[in-house]
Specification:
- Helix content is 34%, strand content 32%.
- It is an alpha+beta fold.
- It has 2 domains: 62 residues, 3-Layer(aba) Sandwich (Ribosomal Protein L9, domain 1), CATH 3.40.5; 80 residues, Ribosomal protein L9, C-terminal domain (Ribosomal Protein L9, domain 2).
- It has a 4-stranded mixed beta sheet. Strands 2-1-3 form a 3-stranded antiparallel beta sheet, with helices on one face.
- A hairpin with a 2-residue loop joins strand 8 and strand 9.
Length: 152
């Protein structure tokens, strides 16, 4: 009997797959436990439409990520911080602050966990940052850290 799995089933397949299982297994285990539904014409058509929708969503997200990567590539953002003697910052500039600044300047939402800094930002200078926007799509940008005006 052909069934469409509604959840991952060990030994049978993953959620959303169309699989062929024995009649007894389907009637006595999969169907009563709501793990699968019988693969009639309507269910197969629904599965096909859901897959096409998922593929379209991936395509749109990939195009958007590429456009955002082009905007961010080789850009420089300037951040300021308070510092003591020797150019050391009080504290550090965190990926969360960098993500907020990218969103403020470029209007592109970035998750702080998707930022890779080449080093911890604890002093003035220029740092490289890789921004991962989607699977396999990233942009490299620079972060310039300067002293807040009026702190000399």
């Amino acid at each position: 009997m052909k069934v469409i799995l509604l959840q991952d089933v060990k030994g049978s397949g993953k959620k959303g797959e169309l699989v062929n299982v024995s009649d007894g297994y389907a009637r006595n285990y999969l169907l009563p436990r709501q793990l699968a539904k019988q693969a009639d014409a309507a269910a197969v058509n629904e599965l096909k439409n859901a897959e096409e929708s998922r593929q379209y969503k991936i395509k749109v997200e990939t195009e958007q990520a590429r456009a955002n990567a082009q905007k961010l590539q080789d850009q420089t953002i300037t951040m300021t911080g308070k510092a003591g003697k020797g150019g050391k910052l009080f504290g550090s500039i965190t990926p969360k602050e960098v993500a907020a600044e990218i969103e403020r300047v470029f209007h592109i939402p970035v998750d702080k966990r998707k930022l890779t800094l080449d080093a911890e930002i604890k002093s003035f200078g220029t740092y490289n940052c890789e921004v991962k926007l989607y699977t396999g799509i990233s942009a490299t940008m620079k972060i310039m850290v300067t002293e807040e005006p009026g702190n000399q």
